[in-house]
Amino acid sequence: MQNVREQYGPRESMEYDVVIVGGGPAGLSAAIRLKQLAAEQGVELGVCVLEKGSEIGAHILSGAVMDPRAIDELIPDWKEKGAPLTVDVTEDKFLFLTETGSKSVPTWALPDNFKNHGNYVISLANVTRWLGQQAEAAGVEIFPGFPAAEILYNNDGSVKGVATGNLGIGKDGEPTENFQLAMELHAKYTLFCEGARGHLGRQLNDRFILREGADPQVYGIGIKELWEIDPAKHKPGLVMHTAGWPLENDTYGGSFLYHMDNNQVVVGFVVGLGYTNPYLSPFEEFQRYKTHPAIRAILEGGKRVSYGARAITAGGLMSLPKLVFPGGALVGDDAGFLNASRIKGSHAAIKTGMLAAEAAFDAVQAGRQSDELTAYPESFTTSWLHTELHRARNFKQWMSKGLYLGTLMVGIEQKLLGGKVPWTLHHQHSDHEMIKPASQCKQITYPKPDGKLTFDRLSSVFISNTNHEENQPAHLTLKDPSVPVNINLLTYDGPEARFCPAGVYEFVKENGSPRLQINAQNCVHCKTCDIKDPTQNIVWVTPAGGGGPNYANM
Length: 554
What we know:
CATH topology of the domain at 12-68 and 127-216 and 317-391: FAD/NAD(P)-binding domain
Number of strands: 24
Largest sheet: 8 strands, mixed
Shape: globular
Oligomer: single chain
Radius of gyration: 23 Å
Structural class: alpha+beta
Helix content: 25-40%
CATH superfamily of the domain at 12-68 and 127-216 and 317-391: FAD/NAD(P)-binding domain
């Protein structure tokens, strides 16, 4: 990197009042709110959004059932402005699955967190594209295809802004004929809205010791497919969740199946990344789940249209880090605001984007810069979002104790006591610490895909429209190249090949000896490897601009 700078000279820079890293719901909501406040006060405010995807929405994947509470606050006339929230939830179903049967929970017995009256079945990618249009109309500068690759610091250690990645670097790390030097974006405040396990957010947590006093963050991996089904089976607005099979009772997870419009359903599976058996494959568990009679009956005869995967934060309130540091803040899933009990995070992303924006706007107008936006965490603690997350603070902890005990205790807390309990449970371990040596675990044999209902990883990645420029350094980096074979393969039987839902990692023989092959071009940016690698040897960094999946209607 230093040689490149010496060869090509200093980087150009652009100055803004606020720079926002990530063009998802959190980042765009922050940008919109900043411009709203500037318009109300009649002042100029420079705001830009950097988005690593090829376009706004390209990397956005979620279930998704959306609670409109936050978007009601941000853009009260969203219906008139054509927001793609058009499918009202009409019915909730919750099933406990055994291998061949299912038992439905009566509606009256469902806790409020599984009731979705007043919510909408959406494509979060499409909602995000719409938010991008609103942001641009308000005067926000949006730069898709430009990942923020580096944090910049002032001399006093405060965050100065970010730099994009150099373009046109070859696999050998040397500039090619297409080389373009990175651009620096300087700001009075920088908001980091990268989503779960943000690459820069992780660095900020370490540099500013933001996680001191917080529980370890814990995650799930969500794997999703979009299907076109027989119109006779289609029920727009039906929301169905399941727990139980195919997972063992001690493994946290469950499914969702939402009926959208146009005879489409989204079907997905979430597996908590605190699982212990290195032979477990979240991707294969999802494929197996679709063979259950209750699910097969809906999908059979239909056509799979799209596929994707992403990590979700599941630690809740007790795992939130300190949100602010000199010069910036963590917003949305970069901090971990998702409500795992409701399987919802978009409303939290929008709300925290608004709160961070309001704090940043007031600070800029007061002539401040590069200090801590303490008004942001203060306003969060008095918000409805804090109340919601506080009520659900024990959900993941109980469910991690097993399906039956967890269900019982969540029912008692949420249904009988309304979340108002005097006790608080804590997460004790990070997900990578939970995996056991292969010698202590039972191998799992998964059925071969049939190509109609169940599929392999490569055909799945193909329909995620994932693409990376091949002549670039791998964005999946290893701290020590010897660890995958000498520790992960030897002790854990190579879990990388199973926990990745995109076929990025495979152990191959070379001259009779195994080595880890990294197929970085397959990566769907789910971050599971960065989270679950038992030795924390894999570090996900940003690839060249615009690389990754290109999700449509996901």
